[in-house]
Amino acid sequence: LYIEPSFGASYKSANLNNYYWGVTEDEAGVIVAPYEAAAGINWHTRFKIGYQLSRHWAASLVAEYERINDEAAASPIVSDRNVLGYFAGVSYRF
Fold first, then answer.
1. 10-residue block means of pLDDT along the chain (94 residues)?
2. Under 8 Å CB-to-CB from 42, ≥6 apart: which residues?
3. With a threshold of 0.70, does the pTM exceed it?
4. Phi, psi angle pair for 20, to nearest 5°
5. What is the spatial distance between Cα 56 and Cα 91, in angstroms, rounded to a whole number?
6. CA nearest 55: which of 88, 92, 2?
């Protein structure tokens, strides 16, 4: 059994923020205004727990919370700057 908590930050360039959260003139309309995001830093915390079932097989569970940067959060298409993700999986090692 292993437990792996982690905390971190990730830099998101203006190009990346605009790809996901920007709104171009062509996409804008009556409800959504054009928006161009600058670069920013996302913060996250992650908790992973795993168990080695046998020599080759392992199972793991992961939960992650991420807070997106101010530039991305200011986009008109973002309703919540907090992102919760999870994963469950089984792996085989040769």
1. 97 96 92 94 98 97 98 94 97 95
2. 9, 10, 12, 66, 67, 68, 69, 72
3. yes
4. -90, -40
5. 8
6. 92
Label residues 44-83 b or e (16+ Cβ within 10 Å = b): bebeeebeeeeeeebebeeeeebebbebbbebeeeeeeee
Distances (CA, A) of 64 to 11, 24, 67, 71, 87: 17, 30, 10, 21, 9
Quote the CA–CA distance of 87 and 94 in Å, as a whole number. Answer: 22
Element (H, E) at 49: strand 40-52
Q: List the structure tokens of 65.
A: 């919370």
